[in-house]
Amino acid sequence: MKKMTDYDKYIPVAKPIIYEKVREYVCKAIDEKALSGTFGNYIDKFEQKFSEFVKSDFAISTTNGTNALHTALVALNIGKGDEVLVQSLTNMATAFAVSYTGAKVIPVDSYLKTGNINPKLIENLISKKTKAIIVVHLFGHPVDMDMIVSVAKKHNLLIIEDCAEAHGAKYKGKNLGTIGDIGCYSFYANKILSTGEGGMVVTNNENLAMRCRSIKNLQYGTENRFNHSGIGFNYRMSNITAAIGCAQLENIDYVIKRKRYIANMYNILLKGIKNLILPVEENYAFNVYWVYHIICKDNLTGKRNALMEKLNYYKIQTRESFWPINRQDAYKNQFIGKDFNCPVANFIGENGFYIPSGPDISDKEINRTVKAIKLSIQDVIT
Ligand SMILES: Cc1ncc(COP(=O)(O)O)c(C=O)c1O
């Protein structure tokens, strides 16, 4: 194996940028002794600013993206006896949120180019119990929403958009989260907008927004506060987290610009490599390239793990793609039969991985990553 240099530093897949303003806003919240929402005003500010950012009428903060999805599903009255179609290639939080409600998860296969749900497969999976579709704007690339909306209308299905990986992405110029009935964001440390942990539900439907607000806050009674109107959850964001969110949101355009710059550089430098599928930007899409995700093909098929090992040797951190819902041990034996097979998601799950693409990666580090990929491919296929 050829060596690069022993002096090279390890390049991580991502590190969040934390802006100076974060310190200022957090200190202000601490000085005001406003740790929780009701004692301060950062929650209101963050929700307001975030709804302006995604152009939604309402935004409701939660403790994380998983809880945002759970809150949305409960608000839509999804529960035991219902089936929900879910893009198979996703972080399992998407499917688990459905399982928390008692509804059944039905996995749907992907397009190879984007990893996103293939809307043409939906109708075949609809049963009398189907109530909703969850689409996931994977790795920063929006789902082809027109087809989803039309099939949902035809069969009277609700649409939940999982936007955890796609802050700022656009479908035909439209922001994500309100093309369907409701959208959910995550602010986990590696996300485009990071507060460490955190989440947001967005919608244009006032009734739904009010339900979400109540559900994520224990469903306190309206007349007698302590006579709760239903079983609620404590998914309240803290005022400190919202203070971080307000500061980070002021700089989100810069992060998105950086993500697109990094993707463009990788696209140019990796272009000639025939046995890799690189990310795309479909003509309907504004891709924010949350991570730069690539797929091994041809004579690299089945060699993804070996390639990742070599890259690790060259001090380049990588992460494998998601493992599809239909193959999860957590749902063992639930998806038997050809209808539930997701060959494209399986292929991506086995052959996909992502490379360092955090907003603060330097040009030099991108060049070093590309050089390491080229050397690693040679090592793996010879
Ligand atoms: C597509 C998707 N949905 C949901 C989540 C869950 O978000 P959180 O980690 O904030 O609970 C994540 C990852 O974090 C994700 O990538």
Key terms:
Aspartate Aminotransferase, domain 1; seven-stranded mixed beta sheet; 11 helices; 2 domains; alpha/beta; Aspartate Aminotransferase, domain 2; four-stranded antiparallel beta sheet; 382 residues; binds pyridoxal-5'-phosphate
What does the model show?
The strands form three sheets. The chain has a seven-stranded mixed beta sheet with strand order 1-9-8-5-4-2-3, with helices on both faces. Strands 10-12-14-13 form a four-stranded antiparallel beta sheet. It has a three-stranded antiparallel beta sheet with strand order 7-6-11, with no helix packed on it. The longest helix is centred in the last third of the chain and has 19 residues. The model has no long low-confidence stretch (mean pLDDT 95). The protein is of the alpha/beta class. The chain is globular, with a radius of gyration of 21 Å. It is built from eleven helices and 14 strands. It has two domains: 230 residues, 3-Layer(aba) Sandwich (Aspartate Aminotransferase, domain 2); 130 residues, Alpha-Beta Complex (Aspartate Aminotransferase, domain 1). Bound molecules: pyridoxal-5'-phosphate.
